[in-house]
Write a structure and sequence with these properties.
With 335 residues, the protein is of the alpha+beta class. The chain folds into 2 domains: 3-153, no CATH class; 158-332, 2-Layer Sandwich (Heat Shock Protein 90). 61% of the residues lie in helices and 13% in strands. Helix 1 packs antiparallel against helix 2 (31-59), helix 2 crosses helix 4 (106-157) and helix 6 (182-197) crosses helix 7 (207-221). 24% of the residues are buried.
Length: 335
């Protein structure tokens, strides 16, 4: 709960107390009763906030219940002191009247005022506890958000840019051969580097940018594949401006090129979106060799980020066999 809402609770409580006192004044038709109502109201106000600001913060301890009980009676004690000072010391001097009969013992006075002060001290203590736990919850939420942000940044930096080095080797070969494909390849690589250095700093980017990165990556990878026509790519996007966290889709494509078998084989990539629902499907054949323990890091990072960013809004199904790797990912990107 926000601080303004807590202030409103204080205001609402005292509005009710004041309204009750006004009704008593109207119905009593007795000046003495009216004055005593005002002294009780004043004692309640003083006792309430002394208890709220000083007593409860010092005595409250969830691990030691007895201290909280002691704090309650300390709050009652201050209420009694304030009321006694007003009704039994000040009023006799100012108005020549008092509430209790002269000679009433302090023990009885204290005992009798436990009843009158209980509601005031209880509400005061309850509001403080409510404020205390609301503050703890806000701090806990803030810590969770900061932890998520730090974790996401760490996961982003763990993504392996191996394709960049492969692209540099391919571009070197094109330049050496004076190929017309060299300049477009350099331009595509520049777009990739701009993405990894600029767009990754943002929490979310347009879906169009994420897909554009994938398309640039594929164009560069085609330079080293003998049969690029085997790469089947389908794209059907209705709302390219939808936002997505960067590097959610890319690691799957990187993984396909890093571990895929393109010796007469290709892969199938389908990216579609309809009414904010993104469908990403990728199938590629694998090179049969000894398992690479590092290969799963990027995919595992994506799993973690999906769980943090899109809880209960995504479905990820991966089929990993000796010969093929299939990814079927669905994300609800609607606002």
């Amino acid at each position: 709960m926000k601080p303004k809402q807590i202030v409103f609770l204080h205001f609402f409580y005292w509005l009710l107390v004041l309204f009750k006192n006004i009704l008593n004044v109207i119905t009593s038709q007795n000046i003495k009763v009216d004055i005593l109502n005002m002294t009780i109201f004043t004692a309640s106000l003083l006792g309430f906030y002394v208890n709220y600001f000083f007593v409860v913060p010092r005595f409250f301890n969830p691990k030691r219940l007895y201290l909280t009980i002691v704090g309650f009676f300390v709050g009652v004690f201050f209420f009694v002191v304030f009321r006694f000072s007003l009704e039994e010391i000040m009023l006799p001097k100012i108005a020549g009247m008092r509430n209790y009969a002269e000679g009433t013992s302090l023990v009885y006075y204290f005992y009798d005022n436990i009843y009158y002060s209980s509601l005031t001290i209880f509400v005061s203590s309850s509001l403080w506890l409510f404020t205390y736990y609301s503050k703890l919850e806000r701090e806990r939420t803030k810590l969770i958000e900061e932890r998520k942000h730090a974790e996401l940044q760490a996961l982003k930096t763990q993504i392996n840019p191996h394709f960049i080095f492969n692209s540099l080797n391919n571009i070197y070969s094109l330049v050496y051969q004076n190929s017309d494909k060299a300049l477009p390849a350099i331009e595509k690589l520049g777009e990739l580097l701009r993405y990894t250095t600029k767009d990754l700093e943002q929490e979310f980017i347009s879906l169009n940018k994420e897909i554009g990165y994938i398309e640039s990556l594929i164009e560069l990878e085609k330079l080293r594949i003998r049969n690029p026509e085997l790469l089947i790519i389908e794209k059907k996007i209705h709302q390219s401006g939808l936002l997505i966290s960067p590097m959610i889709l890319v690691p799957f494509v990187e993984n396909a090129f890093k571990h895929g078998d393109f010796r007469g084989k290709g892969f199938t990539l389908s990216i579609s979106e309809n009414f904010g629902k993104l469908n990403f499907y990728l199938q590629n054949f694998k090179i049969i060799r000894e398992k690479d323990n590092v290969s799963g890091i990027g995919i595992e990072n994506v799993r973690k980020r999906l769980e943090i960013l899109y809880p209960k809004k995504y479905e990820l199904h991966i089929k990993d066999t000796e010969s093929e790797f299939i990814v079927d990912l669905r994300i609800d990107l609607s606002p």
